[in-house]
Queue: 4 jobs
Job 1
Amino acid sequence: MLIESEATLEERLSQPWPVTIKTLGEYDGDILILGIGGKMGPSLARLIQRADAELGQRRRLIGVSRFSNSTLRHQLEIEGIQTIAANALDTAQVQALPDSEIVIHMTGMKFGTGTNPGLTWATNTLGPSKICERYPQSRILAFSTGNVYPLVPSHSKGCPEDTPLEASGEYANAAIGRERIFDYYSRENRTAISLLRLNYAVEPRYGVLHDIGKMVWNNEVINLAMGLVNVIWQGDANNLALCALSDASSPAQPINIAGAEIISVKSIADQFAHHFGKPPRFLGEEAPTALLNDGRAAHRRYAAPRVAVADVIHWTADWIASGKRSFNKPTHFQTRDGKF
């Protein structure tokens, strides 16, 4: 079944799994989402609301962001989510945030790193340190990235959580720095933290699949050097992230959030070409290595992703061909040197 509208899309993205409902039922305190204005934040908040409704549980759900998009803030307020405009780099503003049993840290900076590396490092390290100092007794879900891992052989299953971290480029170094900050405070204050190494969330408005689909639709050349990718339906990614609350610990616990499939970029482009009825254009050949996460540990611990890549490609192809809204935020998944 196709996704006819953004309202239908948001409904699908915010469907809680039974195990997610069970996990959230173990905690009855407030939840604060820092960075709710990003691509995943609104649907994560709605997912929590729906899980709480199933539980018959009422808690305060607080969304924090700079809120450059006032329309989003108004919509969240209508939906019963308290919003606070704050800058995570401002100590006074962070200290003024309300207490919360659970803090979900979704802020970060990736794109623009090449022109402003100082801001990237500040956002990804100083911001987390201020949050950890404000919430030493809270349970923290800290979103990270698969970019903290090295490129691995394309025939592998990807990097498991015990892979030594190896940065390529300024952003990946800052992302490792972010994890080290969370780990330091987790040990220092005995704060229970899960580090969520995500690679890559997708839905029809953005993500690796959207990027490849748009390239096929626009007859653009697709570089095959980064020949393989992990992708995961954003709804599945948010469910897995919330399930990781049960494994937050001190020292901080890394958890890969990735799809069940590793799929080739060429195969993705060919599937979009079939939907669109137009041939894809390729450049180069697949390199022998790729940026890949092994998400199987989380799948065994919580549940396997429910939405297949082929389904998301189908939905995304229709979304693009119908001219529906795009976030216009390319992932630059092709990047192999870490320069964003």
Job 2
Amino acid sequence: VNDVLAELERVFEVRGYKWTHTDEQDPRGNVYMSGDQIKREFGWRPLVTLERGMELTAEWWKGNK
């Protein structure tokens, strides 16, 4: 999650953004992001990297305010 937030800061040019959260413990415990299961079960592969996908998203948002 921190990697995604850092990438959001980069593509939207908001370095050091103060992400808000509570101190409440997530009832699911630790949460991880992984595409391994969808790759294994469905053969899915991303067409672009996370970084490029965020850049494309940022370009779209900036052009479609």
Job 3
Amino acid sequence: VKDNSSRIRQQLFGLVQAQNRVAHRVEKRGKRLDHTKLSRLVSGDSRVFKQTADKRHPNTAVHLLVDCSGSMNKKSSGDTQSPGEIASEAALSIALALEAISGVNPAVTFFGNTSTQPVYYAVKHGQRVQPNSGRFVVDSKGGTPMAEAIWHSAFELSKTREQRKLLIVISDGAPSNRPAVKKVVELCESSDMEVIGIGINTDEIAGLFHPSIVINSVNELRRTLFKLMESSLLLAA
């Protein structure tokens, strides 16, 4: 997990650094001349004064919602890990990578389990991921109340101070009530809350969330997660 998290973090840091680099532009008025643009004066173009503009930093609350229902415990022939194990490791890798980026506030919640404990907090917003890494070992059992879990996570996100709010659902894509999931996702998106999906060993997730990706192992996050989060994690300049 640490190895995957480090590689993911390196990708995200590279993107953050590119987005946070100071941008320069030239204007007709100012106090600093851009000596490389002085030749414009010959043609009557007075845009020779250098202005700087800092691009905006990440300001995002990210809630990872991880399926731990009974279906996540089933291994196919030849699989070394169950979907639940892949989902847990993926969530921990992503959470560790996100908390290392200034301005990002991650949280992780598991759902499924039992009727007496339908959701289980691994990390709440504002808590550190590393000290709570042991809470990512969760038994996969029970139903798949995905719609209710999304409601719960959306409420937690609504309480955060960050400007951008992003919900990532990690699942095998088999909710107990599919129409209800689509409805709650529409409501989240209409409230300017982004919802994206990561499918484990199945592309059914694509019918529930857009955008979405599918992984068959945690190692695949290295090449798929960057594209998925490039437009979602960082504020536009």
Job 4
Amino acid sequence: LKRLAMANPYVAFTFKDEKRTLLQCAAQSLEDEGAALKRLGDIMGADFTENAVAIDLEQEDFRLTGFAGLPTLNRANAQYQFLFVNGRPVKDKILNHGVKVAYADYLARDRFPLVCLFLELKPEAVDMNVHPAKTEVRFREPGKVRSIIVSALKNALKQSGFRASTTVSDEALSPKALKPFRVPR
């Protein structure tokens, strides 16, 4: 449900059980340029919206949009990596590897960036019928797709000026982190 909400920011989503609301996402305005990021914030949290860089690359018949977290905003697993092809949530080794390669110079091996990427391409350039659930895909030109992911992410991270996420700077400047300096006698 979260993935459907990410791909459709102009639609409201509410998911409840008997006792509480599990997911609440208001519909975003069609005129709002930041609608997609606001929706991602509803799902991935305020830390992501404060520490994400925009991705927008169009190359030949491919278009990659979305947001990628700064390298200092990372997790111990890939739970916050969301990838979409033609509006459909997918799990794909080519896309995952592209993200991993793009962040390789910035993250330790056991850390994972937060990303939400939307790849749009012609329907004949991708086979969505690899798996019955349609979550696995096969690209006609996998090398080109991987290259687009890597270059778009690397360019966005480079343009961010290598700034640290607010979560890291907040922790570094917290009173707990600031210990008094004592000169040894």
